[in-house]
């Protein structure tokens, strides 16, 4: 897929209570946004589930929903009415698939969430990578209906690739929504749920998730059963666990890097507003920004002044790591700002443009020296795997120096030379792709400027 300029992302990992008092100190700010990203094979029902969640939590009015139901039915796609809450472009609606990531926010009594609805189609995996790079936890949607789970989980399916990518991007927690439980045979089949659950748990633990960070919840997004309300069906009497929303709400907040050097990923650049001629939006990975701060855009190395800040379209004085913010800027030429660029502070360990790096990677396919594309969030550039330094054992020890090839499933250390310098930190998560498939994902261990 081609990266589009519109970039919403779905999940980040802070679950913060809304009830704590709002302190004026940045460090004690409590109104953070956890974001989450639904991922999974094409057509497994991600958009429908997110649309249902928003409708049941009254973030979509009855009037708007009635219109979506009428319009979708007019083109013979009535089963997509909830998906259309998330899928808003004409292409998405007529084809019945998600193309770009859509963001939306919702709140429970405890938490404000930002959701990112990611596409399942394999052509759009770069959008998924961009989404996952902003997410705190992932909701992995799998279709429990006959043969559908197997199609997603098979070697050509997206379920495995998405789960591996999400893990490699640093997301530690995943909620598996076993969807379409109304369409198993018989409906709400306990046997089917147990089968999908045990396969998913074994796979995710094998992929590096801790068992305690994986939960599996049966749902039917279309009917709304066990999404925000308990399922009321005698076939489902066996299930006494949480609803999806209860599970999301129970996710523990994770510590945010609020006092670390500023890092913000630009998702969107807006030009031409009357009061704010130049604005950017994106998620703060680390640090904080206040009105009046001088920031630096990388790779351009140009500075700008923050004139105003919005969170959820409301003006605020500051924003912190974990939040998705809009910054209104002055004193910079817009040519220096592009989606995927990184904002840092010129005064506090600004990020450097690097020409090459070594990374510890998990190979999904055979990796040999040669041309690839390196993705870091929305940024991507042609690059060369210049050297295979070593194959590593499970705990990172060198098993074999200078291998000729890295086999799928192996860990390795490789040296990568970029065609154009990119802003990268040690510890950054990168994905290595070639000709539309993901070769490897990994962690940057050292950088050369
Ligand atoms: P992509 O974004 O293209 O990857 O698809 P998606 O995972 O977002 O799936 P989407 O929500 O577009 O739904 C695909 C089809 O599955 C639609 O026809 C939905 O009506 C149907 N569907 C979704 N959820 C359920 C469910 O809980 N039960 C049943 N029976 N069908 C469902
Ligand atoms: Mg979708």
Description:
By secondary structure, this protein is an alpha+beta fold. Helix content is 18%, strand content 35%. It has helices at 46-56, 62-74, 83-86, 90-95, 125-132, 148-153, 158-168, 190-206, 244-249, and strands at 35-39, 102-107, 112-117, 137-143, 173-179, 214-218, 263-271, 278-286, 288-290, 294-298, 302-311, 314-316, 318-320, 324-330, 342-344, 353-363, 370-376, 379-392, 398-401, 411-423, 429-434, 437-448. A six-stranded mixed beta sheet has the order 2-3-1-4-5-6, with helices on both faces. The two termini are 30 Å apart.
Total strand segments: 22
Bound molecules: guanosine-5'-triphosphate, magnesium ion
Strand content: 25-35%
What's the rounded overall pLDDT mean? 83
Indicate the low-confidence ranges by residue numbers: 1-34
Major sheet: size, sense and barrel closure? 6 strands, mixed
Using the CA coordinates, give the radius of gyration.
Answer: 22 Å
Q: What class would the helix/strand composition place it in?
A: alpha+beta
Q: Please give the alpha-carbon distance between the first and last residues.
A: 30 Å
- Report helical residue fraction: 10-25%
* Outline: globular
In spatial order, strands of the major sheet run 2-3-1-4-5-6
Provide a count of the helices: 9
Main attributes?
6-stranded antiparallel barrel; alpha+beta; single chain; 9 helices; 6-stranded mixed beta sheet; 449 residues; binds guanosine-5'-triphosphate; 18% helix; disordered N terminus; binds magnesium ion
